[in-house]
């Protein structure tokens, strides 16, 4: 059973105090939200002027100093005049367009910001703020008549690899002194991926794993699924592969010969431990080398997996792979080094045919030997050491792994050719 109280249906037996409390709660929330919106337009300078005016007024009244009272009135008048600058519509129809959302380090990302007045009244001049990562750009927009639009072109320099959030666009209306400022956010942010530099080189077979779902190769096999030709029987051939029709026609025992189908399970282990690098430049070089090797493997239709401390980067396509590298940074807190990363790869990818470990010059030969010893059994190991102090690449052998030291990214193709020679 219910009863009507103050126009609201409430359960029977509810006291008037409880009813008033239920009605007051949403009203108080609306008042609080409105108060926050009003107070949010006051800038730090505005609070200083407001507090100063109040202090001068109270002091002037207590001491009877008319000069202080006049100063308080002047500051109050200044606040009122500045508040008039908040009047006006800011409901632009905002469009943010980046010509490319993926660029390489050093390239400039170009975009356009379009603001249109779709209303029936003019919009007074205002200021538009476009955040880009930790920075921001500002544009002064003229008065827009109904149906008029303004377009602002901008370019974003990309000096370092990163994932930058471009936007959301903020329309700012305020006074010239910066006492009050009203901000309305429009549109949604767009992610700009700044990919690491990579280098192209010819495809090289670093190691293969026989697999029935792989690609045919030029090497011949006695048993596989890609048929190549017929040949005479040799001791050890599987009799199930005998081709009886050709045997009856030639009078000799003929068997089927196949092409091996191969698949390369290519695993890249990139260390994020700051202790494995002498400086940040070595880390960037290691990321660029990892990107170059991964892209080459993907173009060769190999299965690529990328492991770093604490996560596995997406590597289904080249775009996903480079996007993951764009947001990579040094690991924070306590984390494993290149040795622990190699052990993690061995535990999670035991069927890998090629494992490439990348680190900096701070890793000594003893730790590299331990890391190579933890590579999955049967996999070919390659270690790429980023050392920006080198003028030429260096190649050495540690345990069963080739260790390649690079001083610059453009040294990778020639150095890798030496490894595969």
Automatic annotation (TrEMBL):
<dbReference type="Pfam" id="PF01882">
    <property type="entry name" value="DUF58"/>
</dbReference>
<keyword id="KW-1133">Transmembrane helix</keyword>
<keyword id="KW-0812">Transmembrane</keyword>
<feature type="transmembrane region" description="Helical">
    <location>
        <begin position="69"/>
        <end position="87"/>
    </location>
</feature>
<dbReference type="InterPro" id="IPR002881">
    <property type="entry name" value="DUF58"/>
</dbReference>
<feature type="domain" description="DUF58">
    <location>
        <begin position="230"/>
        <end position="321"/>
    </location>
</feature>
<protein>
    <submittedName>
        <fullName>DUF58 domain-containing protein</fullName>
    </submittedName>
</protein>
<feature type="transmembrane region" description="Helical">
    <location>
        <begin position="45"/>
        <end position="63"/>
    </location>
</feature>
<keyword id="KW-0472">Membrane</keyword>
